[in-house]
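Lesson 9: reading folded outputs for more than one chain in a single document. The general rule is that every protein is listed as its sequence immediately followed by its structure tokens, and records are never interleaved. Here is the first one.
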Amino acid sequence: MNSRERFLSACRFLATDRVPVWAMRQAGRILPEYRALRERRPFVEIVRTPELAAEATLQPVRRFGTLDAAITFSDILVVPEALGFAYHFKEGSGIAMERRLDTLAQIDALPPPELVRERLDYIAQAQRIVKDALAGTKALLGFAGSPWTLALYMVQGGHFDDGARLRDLAKNEPAAFEKLMEKLSDAVAQNLLLQIEAGGVDAVQIFDSWAAYAADDYQGLSAKWISRVINAVGGRVPVIVFAKGLDDYGILAGTGANVLSVDSRLPMSVVRERLAPQKIVLQGNLDPAVLLETDLETVRSRTRAVLDDMAGGNGFIFNLGHGVPVGARLEAFAAMLETLEASKK
């Protein structure tokens, strides 16, 4: 069973020879070869240049053979950018959008989703390069931001405190909110379909990074729109949903996702118990802070604890509870993966 077979078998709730593993933000940050690339090229240029994005995607799976999947090097904000809301990074203050969406006229003027697909073709070009390099040995994942999370960036103008502007729009101008979310959902769907049909990815993940800001009405504000995206994907590939900070995994299961990615606040077995008798695949959920550890035995024991918590059943993909953190130690990442490899049956 090679890595691609292992990962896709787990997505179908089938038995595997060991638990498959990949890590959110494995492409970048932790790798000296990526940092060398970043010294020569800015982040957004790497994202938009197929050869550079392919190189960044392949770097972690070249270095760590245990990884079962490569995740496309890109950014969730490519969809707003394709809709006319460019983004950039401000030193010390995070993401900023070139302009803010704050009028109904701007919502009406958003381009059709088919144009988004055309403008994002560079992603599929990078994925085809990666697919050729992987030659069927490892899974290739695509991704997109959730409509809710993307709307937050657009309405707030970039980095924000609590998403109040978008919640106010939903409450006070529901028709405008619905129109915005419909357009964003269809744009996200076209992005994912591009990655599936033209890029050849094996699975996709939807990142609802700001799910917690919709928690009071998650179904209406976010889950409804994730469902629209998943319906558009139409079962072509497995869909993973990661909703950071959300406690109700039942709502997430109701979106139609094949895999739910779990953050680090709850044991995986508790989430599985809450979802019973549904047989839905879970992904996660080692605390990313473990990768900052200098004591490698601590890394190994914490990794084993997650494996032991989910032992005895199918439908589990090992990952972090969020992305690889700034300052993560290469040796700690390697120790985590060695522990996974040692668990092979």
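And here is the second record, again sequence then tokens.
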Amino acid sequence: MPTVSDLRQYLYCPRIIYYRYCLPQIRPVTYKMTAGKEAQDSEEQREQRRSLRAYGLVDGERYFNLDVESEAWDLRGRLDVAIRRTAEAIPVEYKDSPGRAGPHVLLQLAAYGMLLETTWQLPAQRGFIYFIPARRAREIALTPELRAQVHSAVSAINAIIQTEFMPLPPAQRSKCAICEFRRFCNDVL
């Protein structure tokens, strides 16, 4: 079953899915990956001590590192923070970036919202991306378009896994320059 992180990776470069599932013995770990995990762990400790004011909320209960899964969506993941309110579920995703959220991050947040709806049986109409360096949250509407993109991406990921076919490299070759799998592709300069 694909993970929500796979959605983010798929949008960045579909080949990452191929390497993860078809050649699982190959998994380089970069400095950026390690530093991001450390920043997230540190932020989680601070988050536990503060109020929900960063999200513009006065009430709600936070759950950290919440495992969510849905057979219906054929998806699973571990959410950084989930906020449960009386009439809504709100996913929160930490990002160790200065304040930009690309389409891959929005897709990830929408998928977590869908999984929270299944888990808690509450609507998830919005989510937040919390930018660690800026220490600010940005609200994101979880639109029907984003949800449809989640479905399409999960289908495409499953097709890669089932056929074990290596996808083409991304159209933006600049992504390859910082990819941990670059040395394995052999057709990317």
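What the second record shows: The longest strand covers residues 61-70.
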